[in-house]
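For the sake of transparency, this paper describes our internal protein records without simplification. Because each token names a local backbone shape, the row as a whole describes the fold. One such record is reproduced below, unchanged from the form in which we store it.
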Amino acid sequence: MIQFYAPHIAQTLMLPESDSQHCVRVLRHKAGDLIEVIDGCGRLYRCRLTDAHTKHTAVEIVEQVARPLPWSYNITIAVAPAKLMDRNEWMVEKLVEIGVNRIVPLLCDHSERREIKTERLEKIAVSAMKQSLKATMPVIDQMFPLRQFIGTLKNEDRFVAYCDRNIERMLLSQACEQNRDTVVMIGPEGDFSPSEIDLLLKNNFRPVSLGDCRLRTETAAINACDTIHIVNQIAGGN
């Protein structure tokens, strides 16, 4: 069944305009029809339409169901956005489909894109959340200077994907452990500066490789996220 997104459905009993239009005008739902609504906080609501309006569809909640994420650890992908915005949008879509808890756009010394508007990325994340039948919306931060972001971290396992073969690295698939909250940092197209790498190493980031091939920024982010899930699946994690 198609999922609709209404973060305040329990309070308003109303679909937002975009979902109302899709529900009534596109899918031709009418009063009395049953639909599924997610709130982005891990809850699914089975609802009956009481007023099928293209701008403000009203519903009554028939049933509320907890739908937690199918993994127990947190994955944060901190990545310097690519210069071309469509590549960043594609990355967000795939990260959400695969399964991510937080996406942090990083501002680095060599960043080609030095500002980013998250509104469009959040819309893409909502669509990907619906498509992949999740009920939890990942956090998408505003752009974070790298040095400031490091200061927000707590007890997560920390990895930095870095291209310098002169620094000893392990494959991420060998370095990460199951059921651990994990942060993976991906640099810009010009990679991290030496001073940034020095700072990351001093703050307990472990240099890792994502394989023998050189990857684009957005591909590296997706590869890292998927690798963490695969390691947990093989090891029998959630």
Notes: The longest helix spans residues 217-234. The radius of gyration is 20 Å. The longest strand covers residues 43-51.
